[in-house]
Amino acid sequence: MTLLNRFVFPLFLLVFAGAATAQPLPEPQGPVILEVTGQIAASHDGAARFDLEMIEGLEQHVVDVETPWHEGPQQFTGPRIVDLMAAVGAQGAELRFVAINDYAANMPWEDIETYDVILATRQNGDTMSVRDKGPLFVIYPFNDVPDLRNEVFYGRSVWQVKEIKVLP
Predict the structure, then answer these.
(1) What is the CATH number of the domain that holds 121?
(2) DSSP readout, 64-113?
């Protein structure tokens, strides 16, 4: 057995086997505001359910952005979607975001790996009500990446998110 096969290949297996398995998620203690379904490892009865505290327990990121839906600059806070997908052990090619009113939009997996797309729980420091496009809003870094300012990415910026389906 070569040095490469003896040491590197087992290390490769350990790294990727660990990435494919998510830690068990606790049961939500508050109202469920998000269900993640589809190609996921961490689930109870086929879905990973999150309350606000669980989502805000993930590493939080701040995006300062101007959107077509708000007056002036806004600050959104929430976890990166790629981190949320890692927490549930998601493996897919596409994500389908479903809103409370059943509006849905698909996002290629590459978007969450290429851009710091967040699932915002806060706008300007405050939790967002349904009336204010909450409680969850997909936010792209439009100010950091001006090429995202177009109808394709605006259409993927779903607000009032209630479910994310991980598609193969």
Answers:
(1) 3.90.420.10
(2) EE--TTSSS-EEEEE-BHHHHHHHTT---SEEEEEETT--EEEEEHHHHH
